[in-house]
């Protein structure tokens, strides 16, 4: 760049002046005391609504505990969700409305300065903060201040009470070692519960399978937990394509069944690629070879999927020979591999 060009740039830069801030526009609450009072009441009511939402959440947790039949769990979840929503929205909307209508909205400009400001600048910043606190009205609006503090103080109870209530929960880890599957239990399609005959399973087809239990048990809260451990993916291959010798005799005419619970962190493994016989976990891309005992061929999982030994009964229905030979799902403190 020549000296002439640099001088030209300087001249052009001098043509532009700092436009400064736009003229400040007063809000209705700044000029009308009645409007300010009305806004204060609205904000206070929103904080009170948040308090009521918190109380409602605690009442719902005690009155409708998340246990028992499925309908009770769903109702409890709905009530807890509504209570939390009202509590959080009350605080959030009240804070936004307060900031936009009552707190000071004067624009302030602070020039850039070294990281450590002078004592005078620091004192000035503290003074500005005190002015902002005073102009927010929190000091002279006692009712609003009380509602604000009450909403913030009570909201943590919506998290703390359920958390404390669950501290003494069931820590029996032996339940991870067993599922509902037992000798002679029939395989059923998830979620319809229709039983599966070996003749219904064609080569290359995939079935999502659950144990055959009574309708009454399927409506219980216990079923939700037990089903999550017992879900199975059933695939039919050509018998000659099965290369694994592990669990020999556990399949029937190319029909094999493996746990759907990934051995990495427990996501449902359900993406099957027919040509490669690979089974993919969508969470972290762990890949298992169904034709070779569901051994890991890619990804962070470090164990094969447990195989469910199956056969057929006298009527041709697929049944379990026994439970899984090893615990399903990811590792835990008594099982590192």
UniProtKB/TrEMBL annotation:
Function (record text): Iron-sulfur subunit of the cytochrome bc1 complex, an essential component of the respiratory electron transport chain required for ATP synthesis. The bc1 complex catalyzes the oxidation of menaquinol and the reduction of cytochrome c in the respiratory chain. The bc1 complex operates through a Q-cycle mechanism that couples electron transfer to generation of the proton gradient that drives ATP synthesis.
Keywords in alphabetical order: 2Fe-2S, Cell membrane, Disulfide bond, Electron transport, Iron, Iron-sulfur, Membrane, Metal-binding, Oxidoreductase, Respiratory chain, Transmembrane, Transmembrane helix, Transport
UniProt-recorded name of the protein: Cytochrome bc1 complex Rieske iron-sulfur subunit
InterPro entries to which the protein is assigned, alphabetical: QcrA_N, Rieske_2Fe-2S, Rieske_2Fe-2S_sf, Rieske_Fe-S_prot, Rieske_Fe-S_prot_C
Subcellular location, record wording: Cell membrane
The keyword Oxidoreductase belongs to this UniProt entry's keyword annotation: yes
Molecular function (Gene Ontology), one example: monooxygenase activity
Membrane topology: Multi-pass membrane protein
Gene3D superfamilies the record matches: Rieske [2Fe-2S] iron-sulphur domain
Main subcellular localisation: membrane
Species assigned in the record: Antribacter soli
Transmembrane segments: 42-64, 76-99, 146-165
GO cellular component terms, A-Z: plasma membrane
Cofactor: [2Fe-2S] cluster
């Amino acid at each position: 760049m020549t000296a002439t060009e640099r001088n030209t740039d300087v001249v052009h830069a001098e043509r532009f002046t700092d436009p400064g801030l736009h003229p400040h526009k007063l809000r209705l609450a700044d000029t009308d005391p009645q409007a300010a009072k009305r806004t204060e009441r609205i904000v206070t009511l929103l904080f009170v609504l948040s308090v009521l939402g918190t109380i409602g959440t605690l009442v719902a947790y005690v009155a409708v505990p998340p246990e028992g039949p499925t309908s009770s769990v769903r109702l409890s979840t709905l009530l807890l969700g509504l209570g939390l929503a009202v509590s959080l929205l009350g605080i959030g909307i009240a804070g936004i409305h307060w900031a936009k209508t009552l707190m000071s909205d004067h624009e302030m400009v602070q020039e850039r300065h070294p990281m450590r400001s002078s004592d005078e600048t620091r004192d000035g910043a503290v003074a500005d903060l005190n002015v902002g606190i005073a102009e927010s009205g929190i000091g002279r609006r006692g009712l609003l201040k009380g509602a604000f503090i009450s909403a913030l103080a009570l909201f943590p109870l919506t998290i703390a009470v359920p958390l404390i209530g669950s501290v003494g929960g069931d820590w029996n880890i032996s339940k991870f070692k067993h599922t509902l599957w037992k000798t002679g239990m029939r395989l059923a399609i998830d979620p319809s519960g229709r039983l599966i005959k070996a003749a219904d399973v064609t080569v290359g087809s995939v079935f999502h399978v659950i144990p055959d239990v009574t309708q009454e048990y399927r409506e219980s809260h216990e079923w939700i937990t037990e089903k999550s451990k017992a879900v199975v993916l059933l695939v039919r291959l050509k018998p000659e394509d099965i290369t694994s010798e592990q669990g020999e005799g556990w399949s029937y005419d190319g029909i094999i069944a493996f746990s759907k619970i990934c051995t990495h962190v427990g996501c449902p493994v359900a993406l099957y690629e027919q040509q490669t016989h690979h089974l993919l976990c969508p969470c972290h891309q762990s890949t298992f070879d169904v034709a070779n005992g569901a051994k890991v061929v890619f990804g962070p999982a470090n164990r094969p999927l447990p195989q469910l030994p199956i056969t057929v009964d006298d009527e041709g229905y697929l049944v379990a020979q026994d439970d899984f030979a090893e615990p399903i799902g990811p590792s835990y403190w008594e099982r590192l591999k």
